[in-house]
Amino acid sequence: MKEPHPSNNSRPHAASSGPQPHKKPAPPEQTHAENFYWIKQMQARTPVVIILSDGETLHGVVEWYDRDCIKLTRTGSPNLLIYKQFIKYIYKDGAEAALGGTNGQ
């Protein structure tokens, strides 16, 4: 049988030697990273490529977004309202994006 570790109750807990372990706080429920991304793309009018779940490729500029959809403005084609749940991934369109972008310049 294992004996319990003797405790020294004469010293207060805060005065013990060494750093006290801190419990890491839970991450926030909402980081707003997605909102930041969409706003940045809209303000810069960044041309993007959207790949849908079924493999279809769409090119355009994000004009508007909400919790469930984005509005993709296209040149020479009708504008689209796309449900986010059907987006597989999205990336910047064009030669600058292929070379890593302009680094904010």
Please supply descriptive tags for the structure shown above.
five-stranded antiparallel beta sheet, 2 helices, 105 residues, alpha+beta, 15% helix, SH3 type barrels
Structural topology:
Layout lengths: L32 H12 L2 E6 L4 E9 L3 E5 L6 E4 L3 E6 L2 H4 L7
Antiparallel strand pairs: 1-2, 1-5, 2-3, 3-4
Task: Describe it.
The chain has helices spanning 33-44, 95-98; strands spanning 47-52, 57-65, 69-73, 80-83, 87-92. It is of the alpha+beta class. It has a domain at 46-94: SH3 type barrels (Roll), CATH 2.30.30.100.
Quick take:
With 105 residues, the protein is α+β, with helices and mostly antiparallel strands.
Global Rg:
26 Å
Query: Counting H and I runs of at least 4 residues, what is the number of helices?
Result: 2
Strand content: 25-35%
Order of helices and strands: HEEEEEH
Read across the widest sheet, the strand sequence of neighbours is 4-3-2-1-5
- Terminus-to-terminus distance: 69 Å
